[in-house]
Design brief:
The complex is a heterodimer of chains A (about 325) and B (about 325). A 7-stranded mixed beta sheet of chain A has the order 6-7-8-3-9-10-11, with helices on both faces. In chain A, about 35% of the residues lie in helices and about 25% in strands. In chain A, strand 4 and strand 5 form a beta hairpin. In chain A, about 45% of the residues are buried. Chain A has a domain of about 220 residues: P-loop containing nucleotide triphosphate hydrolases (Rossmann fold). Chain A is an alpha/beta fold and about 325 residues long. Chain B has about 325 residues and is an alpha/beta fold. Chain B has 11 helices and 11 strands. Chain B starts with a strand and ends with a helix. Chains A and B meet through helix 8, helix 9, helix 10 and helix 11 of A and helix 6, helix 7, helix 8 and helix 10 of B.
Chain lengths: ~325, ~325
């Protein structure tokens, strides 16, 4: 069953130097219990896509297309409607837990507020439920934590609190935007484990926005790769890692430094840099950096083609990839 | 042979204002760090936030003073050198910072940014020669004539980091200290900069201190690895020894926590270590890792373990021999 259905979503900003297109014509679906990774580099539009879906864009942005959560259309929906949906049916976990929490309120006040507003719980019931939620995200000594302020907690602990906040109203969909990027690797492992648990036990559908293929590999069933505001490839996770079809996906996977790579060889790099925000490529956006590009790639934009296993490329790879250090 | 750089029992404190009356206490950022480097050697420093890796880098280039211990350059204690000589040494040790957007003056053009160190250290150099050296250095880091007159905001992150590297190398230093030089870059660009640093290190015979929280990146660039935690050295050894046969429980936990790059390739990542890093203001007594270590015993809380077997593969853990079996 499709929970979240995004169709032809575009996001643009009116800037002093003309319109900036952050997201172009993106389709995206998510079913119950599924985790889809949205992988891309900075500026690829991965965050803008989901901020738009939840109506969280800046006032200077405009979004077109359709975002359906079940039967409800969310895109450009009135605020009153969004407020009944956000938090209750779809929740967002932000990258930086320290700025996502209010510094002036205790953890307990922040959790209770959500529960009292959305679930109409009384003070005592909200407190009991808050304790349960903190236990659910494996925070030790929850009664003590409820009395503390965000600055008294470590980064990893704060991120667990934001996950607890997101889970407070038992949403069907969780959008986790780089949830472990601000955390140390030993703490990251714990947060990933928690998300994996929630997915399995609660059949929570998760969108994992990340730049890190290693993190995505830990959790996702499917991956959509974004470049310059478009999805350039999407596939089931094993397929994507074993046989990436888009030259960008393949190059990006090869560029990830590995612990098992031979140190005598240089890392595989991609020449050039992604297009800047003002540049709106009319052809394939990756063509200037692509080793397979020809005249067609520089003049005609490839459409995202294929169901389930989709790629937007005139010259996609067909063979599995080779692994550095393993022949 | 005297080492190029030798750090002996280095300690660095940061003053922290903890009371309303401005009385400050010391945050021990670095304790008992000893490490030596020869000409042309590469040393990678790894550890999580707050482990002291950046503090060590800053101490090496003289940006923070030592509270105890010493740093020797070609056998001479830096802090005891007369100012003029110390200045001459500073020229030989240069640094590349994490965020090029913050470390480059936004109002200076690329050519001026790279020429500035020459103006400071070689003011008598004729303009034509200065220009020649700047252009040569820019070419060496992969920037062309079209970049010379640009401002940092007109460059990509990777290009900015190339400028920062050119700026550090234009004085022809013998030691380059890189503090998280690729952490703010996208993966596709990160590899370019890692490869550039590797080429420069080899071609110029530079000594390189490379700091990163990313173990895989450090592994690419460093023949020796220093693992730090809460201001102390946990392990110090050759790359192969540390990555293939980590001795310290912390190093093992750190390596085990890195997600493998493929789905279900080997193992799901498990949190090998529980809990979180204690406050550096209040490090636990004994081994600083004892609050999170799966192998902790009573004696680990009693005394700070010395760095054993320091000559070959140093490890600061009283139980490493048992764990190695």
């Amino acid at each position: 069953m499709t929970l979240l259905d995004i169709r032809s979503l575009s996001v643009s900003y009116a800037g002093p130097a003309g319109t900036v297109h952050a997201v172009n014509d993106v389709d995206f679906t998510l079913t119950a219990g599924e985790c889809v990774g949205v992988v891309g580099e900075s500026g690829s539009g991965k965050t803008q896509l989901f901020l738009a879906a939840l109506g969280l864009l800046d006032a200077t942005a405009s979004a077109r297309g359709s975002v359906r959560l079940g039967d409800t259309e969310l895109l450009n929906a009135p605020r009153s409607l969004l407020e009944t949906v956000r938090g209750r049916r779809i929740a967002y976990v932000f990258q930086d837990p320290m700025t996502a929490l209010t510094p002036q309120l205790t953890i307990g006040q922040q959790l209770s507020e959500v529960l009292q507003v959305h679930r109409a719980l009384g003070e005592e019931a909200a407190r009991t439920r808050s304790l349960e939620l903190l236990e659910r995200v494996h925070i030790g000594d929850p009664a003590q934590r409820l009395r503390q302020y965000p600055h008294e907690l470590s980064g990893g602990m704060c991120q667990r609190v934001t996950v607890a906040l997101a889970l407070a109203c038992e949403p069907q969909v969780l959008v986790a935007d780089e949830p472990t990027t601000a955390l140390d690797v030993t703490v990251q492992a714990g947060v990933l484990e928690l998300l994996r648990e929630l997915k399995k036990e609660r059949r929570l559908a998760i969108v994992l926005i990340t730049h890190d293929f290693g993190v995505a590999a830990q959790l996702c069933d499917r991956i959509a790769v974004m470049y310059a505001g478009r999805i350039v490839e999407s596939a089931a996770i094993e397929e994507l890692y074993a046989a990436p079809r888009h030259p960008y996906t393949r190059a990006l996977l090869q560029a990830v430094p590995r612990l098992d790579a031979p140190v005598a060889e240089p890392l595989v790099s991609i020449r050039g840099a992604p297009p800047g925000p003002g540049e709106t490529p009319t052809a394939c956006a990756f063509a200037p950096r692509c080793e397979r590009a020809d005249a067609r790639c520089l003049s005609e934009r490839p459409e995202l083609e294929g169901a389930g296993r989709a790629v937007a490329c005139h010259h996609p790879f067909t063979a599995p990839r080779s692994f550095p250090g393993r022949s | 042979m005297t080492a190029l750089l030798e750090v002996r029992d280095l300690a660095v404190d940061y003053p922290v204002h903890s009371s309303a009356w401005g009385r400050s206490r010391a945050l021990p950022a670095l304790r008992g760090v000893s490490v030596a480097m020869g000409e042309g050697e590469t040393l990678g420093i790894v550890g999580e936030s707050g482990c002291g890796k950046s503090t060590l880098a800053r101490a090496l280039v003289g940006l923070v003073p030592a509270a105890a211990g010493e740093i020797r350059w070609r056998g001479q204690v830096l802090a005891q050198l007369p100012a003029a000589q110390r200045r001459a040494v500073r020229r030989e040790i240069q640094m590349v910072f994490q965020d090029p957007a913050a470390s480059l003056d936004p109002r200076m053009r690329v050519a001026a940014l790279v020429a500035e160190p020459l103006q400071v250290f070689a003011p008598d150099l004729p303009l034509a020669q200065r220009r020649e050296r700047v252009l040569r250095m820019l070419g060496r880091v992969g920037l062309g004539a079209e970049h010379v007159a640009r401002f940092p905001h007109e460059l990509s992150g990777g290009q900015c980091q190339r400028v920062a590297i050119a700026r550090a190398l234009v004085l022809e230093p013998r030691l380059l200290v890189c503090d998280e030089p690729v952490s703010s870059l996208d993966v596709s660009v990160q590899a370019q900069i890692v490869n550039l640093l590797r080429d420069l290190q080899r071609d110029l015979g530079l000594s390189l201190v490379f700091i990163s929280h990313n173990m895989a990146v450090v592994r690419q660039l460093s023949a020796r690895i220093l693992v730090m935690y809460l201001g102390r050295v946990m392990e110090l050894g050759a790359r192969e020894a540390v990555f293939a046969g980590a001795r310290h429980p912390y190093t093992r936990a750190l390596l085990a926590a890195i997600p493998p790059p493929e789905p279900r390739a080997h193992r799901p990542v498990h949190a090998v270590t529980s809990g979180e890093i204690p406050s550096p203001l209040d490090p636990p007594p004994g081994c600083v890792f004892n609050t999170r270590c799966a192998w902790v015993q009573d004696r680990c809380r009693e005394a700070v373990p010395p760095l054993e077997d320091a000559a070959t593969h140093g490890v600061a853990c009283v139980r490493w021999r048992e764990l190695a079996r």
